[in-house]
């Protein structure tokens, strides 16, 4: 006896080292882990059907008694057990495929609880059940335990059976339940009508009714969000205290020069955001701000002004971008614009000639303030960024939280700015970035004409190409995007490489370029440059151009096999056109224009609002896919669902803020337990760490 919440799972009654290892595979290491290993689903056995009630095709759980049985081996590899069974209403045939191990235990007279699919057996005229799960009911006690209740079903791993894990969790629960401490302050529970923790956990494992289950789930979801938000909010406050930094002395002389050099004036939204940033930079606390702005809203200029502010203050300005194409593009643009101002600007990326890299590092290490632009290679050990005053991460959703933290750690409390175009719905925002200040560029530069987006089948390609020719004659340019680099054996998709060849033939009079992820960086840069200079009119590409690429003269985008892309991705791609003042066109080519396809694409063809599209995308595909696997920073909640439970999240956040406002140290009687919770048990309960 004497287990504690942190005791190893192997000491739970009936577990031992071997099964303990299997539990580890499920992420269960301690008794505590088991307590909050919540069921994946439930088997509602409160009212089981009788044989008379089942219908062909149903998946049912039913209690049967064996009358007689036979064991047939039909073919090598297929073993069949058949039994004639009955209940009080009728006869039923039960069949087990490839479960020979049951032969030893199944005997006439035995009462079973089986789960399986019902089929009609034409030969016996008896309904037949193809059994997938079998439980033997040896005693009245067994019957009581297994029927008339809602049974939890847990995730499994090879070598572990459902009945086994159910028993283990039950043991864990019996042993651990007295150890559970409810650390949520009583008055919060009272005020928001929240269930106590132990009954809630009990109800999640062993629901007594749908209504009680919902209440219990609400309590757990609240906890998950609340303690997560409490931590984020605490971090935010701490950051403000700790991240003391020297305020930047910004004269705005360089910045004003830059404004004058720009061929346009900034939008109100850009100005507003720049103002917020400059205010931050002048404070003795490091800025920690996320800029959200749809594709084409002009985030780059905001970034450049921020970098210039660092230079004015005699510090380095660092800008990190997720792809080499984008980093190079930023570098060329910034270098070009700043040339007249005598500002040193350098590029650092993964694949560089040794000499170039050395030169770049020399600039970075020199005492003169410079602008450093690079890919994630900036995170590498040997790049010293200690004189960095401002750090900007472009397309931040492409980086993991850890990468962001690593880069930040390279400098001494730099002012940080994160930029993203992938609009993250509010709930995700609050969870991932609850610790950041936010600015939104909610306005596009004037004269932008929304691209006309249409969904077409590939029969219309000739017409589309005709449209391309029309625009090409007006000296405009075209993107044609393909989903894969090379013909894949499994999926019949036109690859960019093949596509390039035929497009090159079709558009004889124009220069066609090809760009894809497997090309050397130098080749990529060369192609991008030629496209930018309109030496190439048609750019055939894969998604390497998805983020950031800026060629305002391009007005047509043809996306092949559009079904292969996520909606947010399509929105990003489409953001490459419509950047100048001319009408632009986006053609989504799909094999089918069925209602289903139309429905899926409706969001993207109907709206230009990236927020709506992202929200829709999240509903269809879930956060992992939309935000990319890189977004490993998303916390893993046990029960909470960021979309479904948004209201609870908002409430939890409000309460967390309120609490910290009243008692920032969580040291008062009413809140001390919250601190305990943050430091102990709830740690797993509120989702994992930030990596
Ligand atoms: P994103 O927010 O997607 O990074 P960019 O910064 O690449 O957008 O800007 C998109 C395009 O709009 C660029 O060609 C840029 O020069 C142009 N642009 C930015 N701000 C303005 C403005 N205020 N007026 C006109 N054009 C602008
Ligand atoms: Mg950009």
Question: Tags for this entry?
Answer:
691 residues, 7-stranded parallel β-sheet, binds adenosine-5'-diphosphate, 6-stranded parallel β-sheet
Structure at a glance:
With 691 residues, the chain is of the alpha/beta class.
Report how far the terminal alpha carbons are from each other. Answer: 36 Å
Biggest sheet, spatial arrangement of strands? 10-11-9-12-13-8-14
Please tally the helical runs, counting DSSP H or I stretches of 4 or more residues.
Answer: 24
Number of strands: 20
For the sheet with most strands, the description reads: 7 strands, parallel
- Please report which band the strand proportion falls in: under 5%, 5-15%, 15-25%, 25-35%, 35-45% or over 45%: 15-25%
| Class of secondary structure makeup | alpha/beta
Runs in which pLDDT lies below 50 for 5 or more consecutive residues are: 487-492, 628-632, 681-691
Q: Which ligands are bound?
A: adenosine-5'-diphosphate, magnesium ion
Overall residue-averaged pLDDT value: 85
Shape: globular
> Radius of gyration from the CA trace?
31 Å
């Amino acid at each position: 006896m004497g287990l504690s919440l942190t005791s190893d799972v192997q000491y739970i009654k009936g577990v031992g080292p071997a099964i303990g290892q299997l539990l580890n595979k499920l992420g269960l290491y301690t008794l505590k882990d088991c307590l909050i290993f919540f069921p994946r689903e439930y088997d509602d056995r409160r009212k089981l059907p009788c044989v008379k009630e089942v219908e062909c095709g149903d998946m049912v759980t039913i209690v049967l008694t064996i009358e007689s049985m036979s064991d047939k081996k039909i073919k090598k590899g297929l073993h069949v057990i058949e039994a004639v069974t009955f209940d009080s209403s009728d006869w039923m045939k039960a069949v087990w495929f490839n479960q020979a191990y049951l032969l030893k235990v199944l005997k006439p007279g035995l009462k079973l609880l089986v789960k399986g699919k019902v089929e009609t057996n034409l030969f016996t005229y008896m309904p037949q059940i193809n059994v997938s799960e079998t439980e033997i009911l040896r005693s009245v006690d067994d019957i009581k335990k297994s029927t008339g209740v809602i049974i939890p079903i847990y995730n499994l791993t090879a070598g572990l059976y459902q009945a086994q894990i159910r028993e283990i969790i039950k043991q864990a629960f019996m042993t651990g339940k007295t150890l559970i401490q409810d650390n949520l302050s009583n008055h919060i529970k009272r005020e928001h009508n929240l269930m106590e923790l132990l009954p809630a956990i009990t109800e999640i494992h062993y629901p007594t009714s749908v209504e009680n289950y919902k209440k219990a789930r609400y309590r757990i979801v609240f906890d998950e969000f609340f303690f997560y938000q409490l931590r984020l909010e605490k971090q935010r406050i701490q950051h403000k205290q700790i991240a003391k930094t020297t305020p930047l002395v910004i004269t705005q002389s360089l910045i004003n020069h830059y404004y004058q050099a720009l061929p346009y004036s900034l939008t109100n939204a850009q100005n507003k955001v720049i103002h917020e940033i400059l205010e931050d930079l002048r404070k003795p606390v490091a800025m920690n701000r996320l800029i959200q702005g749809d594709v084409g809203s002009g985030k780059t200029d905001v970034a450049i002004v921020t970098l210039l502010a660092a230079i004015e203050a005699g510090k380095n300005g660092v800008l990190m971008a997720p792809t080499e194409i984008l980093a190079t593009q930023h570098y060329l643009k910034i270098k070009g614009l700043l040339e007249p101002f005598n500002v040193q600007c350098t590029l650092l990326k993964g694949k560089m000639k040794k000499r170039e890299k050395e030169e770049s590092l020399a600039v970075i290490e020199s005492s003169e303030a410079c602008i450093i632009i690079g890919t994630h290679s900036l995170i590498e050990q040997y790049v010293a960024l200690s004189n960095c005053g401002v750090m900007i991460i472009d397309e931040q959703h492409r980086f993991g939280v850890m990468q962001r933290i690593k880069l930040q750690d390279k400098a001494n409390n730099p002012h940080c700015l994160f930029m993203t175009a992938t609009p993250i719905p509010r709930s995700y925002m609050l969870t991932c970035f609850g610790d950041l200040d936010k600015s939104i560029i909610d306005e596009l530069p004037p004269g932008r004409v929304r691209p006309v987006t249409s969904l077409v089948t590939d029969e219309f390609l000739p017409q589309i190409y005709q449209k391309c020719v029309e625009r090409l004659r007006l000296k405009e340019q075209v993107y044609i995007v393909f989903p894969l680099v090379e013909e894949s054996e499994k999926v019949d998709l036109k690859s960019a490489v093949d596509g390039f060849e035929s497009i090159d033939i079709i558009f004889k009079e124009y220069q066609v370029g090809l760009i894809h992820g497997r090309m050397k960086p130098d080749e990529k840069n060369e192609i991008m440059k030629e496209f930018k200079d309109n030496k190439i009119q048609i750019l055939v590409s894969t998604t390497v151009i998805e983020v950031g690429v800026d060629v305002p003269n391009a007005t047509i985008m043809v996306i092949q096999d559009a079904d292969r892309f996520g909606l947010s991705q399509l929105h990003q791609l489409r953001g490459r056109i419509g950047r100048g003042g001319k009408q632009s066109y986006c053609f989504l080519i799909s094999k089918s224009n069925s209602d289903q396809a139309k429905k899926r694409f409706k969001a993207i063809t109907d709206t230009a609002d990236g927020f709506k599209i992202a929200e829709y995308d999240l509903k269809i595909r879930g956060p992992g896919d939309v935000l990319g696997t890189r977004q490993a920073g998303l916390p893993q909640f046990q029960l909470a669902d960021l979309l479904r439970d948004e209201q609870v999240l908002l409430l939890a956040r409000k309460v967390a803020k309120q609490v910290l406002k009243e008692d920032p140290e969580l040291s008062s009687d009413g809140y001390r337990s919250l601190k305990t919770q943050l430091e102990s048990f709830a740690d797993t309960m509120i989702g994992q760490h930030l990596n």
